[in-house]
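Ex. 9. Protein: S49 family peptidase.
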Amino acid sequence: MDDTPTPTPAAPPNFPPPEPAALATEAPRAPGPFKRGFGMGAGLGLGLAVTFVALAVVTGVFALISTAMALGSITSSGASTSLSTLWGKTGASGKLRALSISGPIMTDASEGGLLVAGTFGYELAEQIDAITKDDAAGLVLLVNTPGGSITGSKAIADAIDRYQERTGKKVLVHVEGMSASGGVYSTAPADAIYADHGSIVGSIGVIFGPFQRFRDVVATSGSFIESGVTTTGGITQEYISAGTGKDFGNPFRDMTDAERQMITTMLDTEYDNFVGHVAEQRDIPQETIVNELGAQVFGNDDAERVGLIDGTLNREEFFRKAAVEAGLDPEETVVQALQPPTGLEALLGASRPAGSALPIAELGEGHRVSTSFCGGGAPLVYAGDLAGVCS
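Predicted structure tokens for S49 family peptidase:
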């Protein structure tokens, strides 16, 4: 047996593994002008769209808030209760509230519908009742009125009493031309009454009418509703009524003695109430009012002498006086008043400041101020010729 060792086979050579062939890479190309413009435009458009949506949402929210605020400042009768600065520095720490009694005083907006001009007593009373002691340091009434209905005038006077009792604040009046009859009635409870230069105050009396009586009628004048009638045989007009005196005021018959006495008694009662009211509020003896003042009107000096006003001040002086009386610094006081409707309020149906009627000039000629004024339907505390507001 051959003991020669078997040779060990040689190990294969250790070659490094082959490296993969490198792939050729292409350098990135810059985007072309169209691609760059399109991307920028798309991004800008998206940003603008998002911004527009956000602005629309914000605008919508503010519109809803503004609408809600506007609706809250409009009464059921279409009047605005928004405030604006009448005098002083906007944003001042001291505040006074001003309300106007201007033109004929009527009871409410139902007297003649939109064919009116002046002040609505019930609405103005509601505005006074709505003022709290935290809203203002006092109330000022700016007056230029010939008077009007007893009901409307008394409503304002009663509201002044309630305001003084409820808030403990003072009410001051500034007569800016005229405070006659119902003007005196409505403002008598005020703590002080001042008149601007050249004003007239007074006319404490009651009137009812006019009552017409046609005699020997042969024609009636025409109107825009019906044509005139002319006849040589006369004109007869007849009322069929039940109840004594139901056709009272028929211009084709005389007033009876009983009817005349009834009206006189009613006026005497209203006159006594008027005199008693002014006597109590202004501390003037009733006998003085009846026997000396009568239904006359007085200039500033005489009105102060008889006790109807407390002095003469122009508007600037009056506002400063009102601020001092309210315990305020006039330099840090703002007087706020109801303003005409804003554009949004007008769109929502507001047509006038609360308590005030539309100026007669805006209604055109031929409109009656109020059926109660021009129809002779109730006694009035009014001074002057009704033709000025009834024609």
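Check your answer against this statement. The chain has one domain: 76-215+248-390.
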